[in-house]
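User: We ran a pulldown and think these components assemble together. Before we commit to crystallization trials, I'd like a predicted model of the whole complex to look at. Sequences follow.
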Amino acid sequence: MTVAKIPEKISPRPSLRRKIEDLSGQKIAACFQCEKCTNGCPVTFAMDVVPHRLMRMLQLGLLDEAIRSDTIWVCASCETCTTRCPNDIDIAHVMDALRQLSQREGIKVVQKNAPTFHAAFLASLRRHGRVHEPEMAVEYMLRSGGLSGLRKQAGTGMAMFKRGKIKLLPPRVRAGRQVKNIFKKVKR
Amino acid sequence: MEVSYYPGCSIEGIAREYGESVAAVARILGIDLKELEDWTCCGAASAHATDDMLALALPARNLETADKAGLDMVVPCAACYSRLKHADKALRAGTKIEGVNGGYKGDFRIKHLVDFIWEEVGEKAILEKVSKPLSGLKAVCYYGCLITRPPRITDAVDADNPESMDNILKTLGAEVKNWSYKTDCCGAEHVLTMPEVAWKMIQKLFDMAEEAGADAIAVACPMCQSNLDTHQDEISAQAGKQYNVPIIYSTELMGLAFGAPEADKWFARHFVDPRPLLREKGLL
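Assistant: Here's a predicted model for the assembly, 472 residues in total across the polymer chains.
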């Protein structure tokens, strides 16, 4: 785990708070630091900035620091924070907006396995219209851990194969073109 | 009873025994599952982490098909269910979604499988089919995150304490234990991206199930099942404590209680084989 760098002296930058409010569609300013998000979060033990502190950082406009945090990738999108926030802030969606911004700005991510997984998942989905699990898993393992990463997981792969859980042929979907078009249109 | 059926990508792969047991249970209960024509992936976690419009457009193209069919749609996966409900709420609110032509009537409901079976098929019809009650089987029901959260999307009555799976298992004759971890998180894709983190989350579930007095954990989501079932050796090594907890799909338990002959084949696909426990209880 890394620890997000937070400057000792902070001058609030409201324009950056408004930027993440626009991107996420959420009223970050409404957070009154009740800590319900943090107390309900099942992954705080692995985070460098716990959720209510991340919200405070965003209020102060520490957006650059937030998109470099481990927290946005450690978040498992379980939606507990969103469900419990007394101010109706969709905190899990704020995490999404931060991940998206981090990727768009090409931030070098410490927890790089997470975006690598998402890229492999979407690549398989785009190719076939559905996710072909073994292809996605192999692509992810090669991209994240190279051949040695693939070798490490080979045992699990074989065990799944023996149990009939690996379908070798990719799915065939007539709507493949429609799915490809969706990707083409939304890619910025 | 005819319904649209959105199986999701895992049903033919890692969750094959889920797909097989869903089909058997539907047949026995008289649910006619009409697989959604030419369905495509909902995008799951990867789409919403990447692009908001992608996260809506991928499930929405399936909703257009379901809308034309006009039948209630049953979904066995928690993540698919969540993404389809997100897109459904957006379409109903009039959000313009890429690839959707408009004219969404939304004259159908989207239901997670366990909710559908409890609420639409109901206790009486389930009970009628029970030929081998699951007497003596102590289990907790694990719903995971996305069947109920967030309730503004899922329409869950009590997001922390869903009961449909508990009620189904009780009707099957199982001894269902109460616990506070019904909707805690299994770590989702972290099992691949940050395994040590996910294993710690899963270990917590095992410990709490044990404390509740359960011998097995019943599930209703391919990812929850796979995460809890596949990595018990690694979790045991990390925790310094041996875990051997059968993780059984709720539909497998229904099939077993209904006397479905193919149940043995489903259990053979598990990493932690539930058959020794089921034999010990005289259920197999």
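The radius of gyration of chain A is 19 Å. That may be worth checking against your pulldown data before setting up trials.

User: Thanks, that helps.
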